[in-house]
Amino acid sequence: MNNMNIDQLFNQHFADSPAGATTEKPVVVCAPGRVNLIGEHTDYNDGFVFPMALDRVTTIAARRRTDTRVRIFSMMQDQMAEFTVDLEVAKAAPKWSLYARGAAEALRQRGLIAHGMDALIHSDVPLGSGLSSSAAFEVATALALLTVNGRTLDGVELAKACQWAEHHYAGMPCGIMDQFISVMGQEGHALLLDCRDLSRRQVPLSDPNLRILVANTNVKHELVQGEYQARRNQCRRAVEHLAKRYPQVKALRDVTLDMLESVRLGMDPMVFLRATHVITENKRTTDFAAALEKNDWITAGRLMYESHRSLRDDYGVSCRELDVLVEIARSVPGVYGARMTGGGFGGCIVSLLPEKVVPLLEAAIAKDYPLQTNLKSTYFVTRPSAGARVISR
Ligand code: GLA
Predict the structure, then answer these.
(1) Is residue 242 part of a domain?
(2) pLDDT for position 4
């Protein structure tokens, strides 16, 4: 969407119902998707994550309305969704609108919305690919609504409001990572976030020769939501079991491998494995941040491969296509490391490599992935970018 065609698009999609509409200049906001470098399935265990915001964003151009109607035209779906924000926002079709409805409801409950909006939405975050297109949509919607209402919300509160939307309107019991980084991303930095107290450190990724390549399996297995909930339940069971011996344990964050080993007897072996992943992944994540601060890419890359192995074997959230892509990355000399990123069961891998190796990895993915899966991968080089922002008002 550029300034030139925004007016045209507004006329095209919103001219039909002038009552309540205004002719004010639209505000334009955007919110990025994310890629998580390491720290997977740790956020809902009070652990550490290390995501960065992508240079791919969901953009919303919005015009305040005098009434409480919200009309959103999705340029990806080529469809209009409509709801009102005076009373509790309805959980209604179309399905894609649930993210926007949830975000609006979270703000309504905080007393922040007096006006609805006419809004156009466009996204270049690949949808449903584990790059948090849904968080980007929620955050962009919330920011658009706040802006047309002349309100602001502290970043942490904004992230929590959007996480609430994901839980209650999209039915996905996610942690805080995706919404948090979509709000808090900083150009040139990845974010080490402690999901227990939300303390955080922006870690510069400043080596000019370093590249981050994301490759999409282009599969999404249907298991995602159910398996995600199942993993959360297993983690809870692990904590309950551990707390009998160690009453101070409130989350897997509080557990060492020695403690886990000491209560192994009588523990469901599957639950034991899941807990092993979370405990080792927390350690890998803080080690990874330390390696990055020393520009030690070799160590950082090794931790990524170990993370993938742990997600595949101990946490059981990988899939064949993700494993194939990671092995392709490993087969290319010079690649530092690669792993699945996001919830799993499809979606993307993230890899760390020197600039000069990028064409080699791209060629290997283009040739070998179809051979092994009959599928095509789409891939792109990305860089750590800024979080949600108002572009013009
Ligand atoms: C999804 C969730 C996040 C996080 C990851 C796994 O992306 O939305 O909160 O739990 O899975 O690390």
Answers:
(1) no
(2) 60
For range 310-339, the mean pLDDT? 98
Q: What is the pLDDT of residue 3?
A: 63
Q: Which of 127, 315, 329 is nearest to 220 (CA)?
A: 127
Which atom of ligand 1 has the smallest separation from the CA of 132?
A: 7
User: Quick check: CB of 344 below 6 Å from ligand 1?
Assistant: no
227 inside domain: no
Statement: residue 58 has pLDDT above 80: yes
- Residues spanned by the domain of 66: 6-204+387-392
Helix (H) or strand (E) holding 190: strand 189-194
User: Which residues are CB-neighbours of 71 under 8 A, at least 6 positions away?
Assistant: 14, 80, 81, 82, 116, 117, 118, 119
The rounded Å distance from CA 185 to ligand 1 centre is: 16
pLDDT given for residue 174 in this prediction? 97
Range 126-135 average pLDDT:
94
Is residue 368 part of the annotated active site? The answer reads no
CA distances from 361 to 101, 146, 300, 328 (A): 40, 42, 18, 8
Q: What is the DSSP letter of 389?
A: E
